[in-house]
Automatic annotation (TrEMBL):
The lineage of its organism: Bacteria, Bacillati, Bacillota, Bacilli, Bacillales. The keyword Oxidoreductase does not apply. SUPFAM superfamilies: (Trans)glycosidases. It comes from Paenibacillus albiflavus. Residues 80-396 form the DUF4015 domain. Pfam families: DUF4015. Keywords: Signal. Residues 43-77 are annotated as: Disordered. InterPro entries: DUF4015 (IPR025275), GH (IPR017853). It comes from the Bacteria. This is GTP-binding protein. Residues 1-17 form the signal peptide.
Length: 402
């Protein structure tokens, strides 16, 4: 590990080799941010949670459940697509239903709280309605869920949790405030709400409960994290916090959400950065892969080849090596979950894979039928039977053998 860190430090010159507090996660993030680094990082290079009876309990072990039961044990092996609320409530929806009717795809991940923070249908819940955060992109949610049921499409409700520009600007005291008194924004003009606050937890869980009531069989939480690079800006922002670490806060939210939704009989899943499976813990954004996975029914690492910078898994351009990249990410994911498998609390692994062309990546390739099938082949070679396709515009490749 020391030799690997030294090598990475030399290549990613934006981190000082003299700094004693540089973490592996910071190095990985530097890799993700770098456009020129060419480093061979082999699959399985990171540590994992292998069970050791002589090893003292870790700081997050208090969050590991003693047992876990799938609330939807008769669900199909999910092969799904992402659907925005605008598409779900519009004319294009019928064409996506037709796509699923004629292929082995059988599930839709539909926005019920979107990337801006809008609740996308009328929940009928006065507490939520009175907040003014509802935007009825899906005019008739009951018609939508009836259509999904009629076509035997497994319904997953996506909730974007801590990235929430609408709520943050409405209630700055529950967000992060910059030194000039304005709500902090990232480089994409997006704002986040504060994961330390239980009010934020309950708000999102209330949305999840309403989604479950109208027929969604699974709630998928996305952006379950602090903003990227938060550790670099945390001290300059004003926000409420306590003595808990960021990874404690995020893991505790996931455990709480699972407990709150369990009586409704719905699955809980979480989207997580793919690289979180390849590092000890993504402490800056608060994502501990093992502990989050322990408290969900399904874990969905976002292992898009375009998200890995040059050198990952031995590929000079991971985006141009879909099989090699997905294979490496799958190996790391399985290793990261070794201890949970031994404890019989391992979740279903259902990764997000790439059905888009990443034109912004140097050396990228055009993604189509072959590239999708290469990703799927890599998953199957690693025993992964479920997956989700991401395309932000909901334009999915035809003719793929799923």
């Amino acid at each position: 590990m020391e030799m690997l860190l030294a090598s990475l430090l030399m290549v990613w010159g934006n981190l000082s080799a003299a700094s004693s507090d540089v973490t592996f996660e910071q190095l990985v993030q530097a890799s993700l941010d770098s456009k020129n680094a060419i480093v061979e990082v082999q699959p399985g290079s990171a540590t994992n949670g292998t069970k050791d009876p002589d090893k003292p309990a870790g700081p997050l072990d208090y969050l590991l459940p003693a047992s876990k039961k799938d609330p939807e044990p008769n669900s199909p092996k999910v092969k799904g697509i992402y659907v925005t609320s605008h598409v779900a409530g519009g004319k294009k929806f019928d064409s996506l239903v037709n796509l699923l009717d004629k292929t082995e795809l059988n599930a839709m991940v539909i926005d019920v709280k979107d990337d801006y923070g809008y609740i996308t249908f009328d929940t009928g819940n006065p507490e939520l309605t009175n907040l003014g955060t509802t935007k009825k992109n899906i005019a008739d949610i009951h018609k939508l869920t009836a259509t999904l049921q009629e076509h035997d499409i497994y319904p997953i409700g996506r909730i974007v949790v801590f990235k929430d520009s609408i709520y943050a600007n409405m209630k700055p005291e529950q967000s992060y405030v910059s030194s000039n008194g304005t709500v902090w924004q990232n480089g994409r003009k997006e704002s986040f709400v504060n994961p330390y606050l239980k009010e934020i937890w309950d708000y999102n869980i209330n949305v999840a409960k309403e989604a479950a009531k109208v027929g969604f069989k699974e709630i998928q939480f996305d952006y379950v994290r602090f903003p990227e690079g938060f550790e670099k800006k945390a001290d300059s922002l004003k926000y409420t916090k306590d003595d808990r670490s960021r990874i404690q806060v995020i893991s505790e939210f996931v455990k709480y959400a699972k407990e709150q939704l369990e009586p409704l009989g719905v699955r809980v899943s979480v989207d997580i950065f793919g690289y979180a499976a390849s590092v000890p813990a993504a402490e800056g954004i608060g994502q501990d892969f093992e502990t989050i996975s322990a408290n969900v029914d399904v874990i969905s690492p976002m292992i898009y080849p375009s998200h890995y910078s040059e050198g990952w898994f031995g590929a000079k351009v991971p985006d141009a090596a879909p099989y090699q990249t997905i294979n490496g990410a799958s190996i790391d994911t399985e290793k990261k979950l070794t201890r949970l498998k031994e404890m019989n609390i391992k979740p279903i692994i259902r990764p997000w894979i790439q059905d888009f062309t990443a034109t912004w990546v140097k050396g990228h390739i055009t993604y189509g039928k072959h590239e999708l099938e290469e990703q799927i082949r890599a998953l199957k070679d690693n025993g992964v039977e479920e997956y989700l396709l991401w395309n932000a515009g909901n334009n999915y490749t035809e003719g793929v053998k799923f």
